[in-house]
Amino acid sequence: MSSSGPTLAQIEVVGIVLTIVAVIVTSFRLCVRARQKRLWLDDAWAALGMISNFMLLIADCLYLQDYERYSQGTRVALYYMIAQFFYAVVWSSRISILFTIVRLTAPGTFFRRVLISTAITFGIVWALLFSQVWWVCETESGWKTQPHPQCDLGRGVAIAQMITDVLGDFVLIFAPFCLIYRVRLSTGQKVRVLSVFSASAITTVVSLVHAYYIFSGGGLQEVMAAIVEASMSLIVASLSVVVASIFHLKAEGDSPSTSTPIITFGSQPRRRVRDPLATTFTGVESTPIVLEDLSQSHPRSLKIGDDDEISLNNREAKQMNEW
């Protein structure tokens, strides 16, 4: 173990604070979705990440502070639990973000199938990364005799983590661009809707720092970076829901007491533009756009926000003729 860097007490304080923040943010997200009766797979993955983050905190506290009370085998098991819960938080958070993007698309579309396939790939990567850690640590088992056992993961694990983190976050940042690039919005609106999803870049930076400490031999810096990365990943996974709720971006007519709304917009330069993070919005378009609820699926539809979608359906041609 390296003598430099943060102390055990500092790591424990950072872990507790960040975990509490991540749990509060995720719980708020789940309450919002439950109140709206919109719970879906992305919320299930976020809940799994929250549970894993809480378990990671418990394992970290036992591993860092109370390890002298346990046998050597228990200490080794705690280390493996930390490694597993770390990957569980990071990749379940990424899968949650991906399914948040999936729910913005219409069922049956090619892009939706691609995103679902990518989510399955994320799950496979998660399993492979933990298997790599298990293989490396079991191959060189000398670390298990240390008073504070910590496996030297080496360059292979660091490289694999950097590649998968960068590629995974790139997908989470790029996918929303594919959804809205055809929608005409003001520059400010585009920045707002994309900045929420682009927050995945934050976890990329933290993961690169984590990988650097793995390269440099681990130690307490690696433990600290892993805790920060896990909590930040979970917080970022809920930003899209939390931001929309805080700024009251829920569209009019989206309450459960109303019927399925269908709103048609044409080329009205002075029409007020709704924020794109809301469930519906109005843009200055030369072609009418029909916004309607996901309960009526169309093959050429794009959902905006958490609840509704923009549906460019077959009636568009007829509407264009009428204009």
Number of strands: 4
What is the H-and-E element order? HHHHHHHHHEEEEH
Supply the number of helical segments. 10
What can be said about the biggest beta sheet?
4 strands, antiparallel
Model regions low in confidence, pLDDT < 50 over at least 5 residues: 250-302, 304-323
Structure description:
The structure is a single chain. 63% of the residues lie in helices and 5% in strands. It has ten helices and four strands. The protein has helices at residues 8-36, 41-64, 72-102, 110-139, 154-180, 187-198, 200-215, 220-237, 239-246, 316-322, and strands spanning 262-265, 289-293, 301-302, 308-311. It has a four-stranded antiparallel sheet, with no helix packed on it. The longest helix has 31 residues, at 72-102. Residues 250-302 and 304-323 have low confidence and may be disordered.
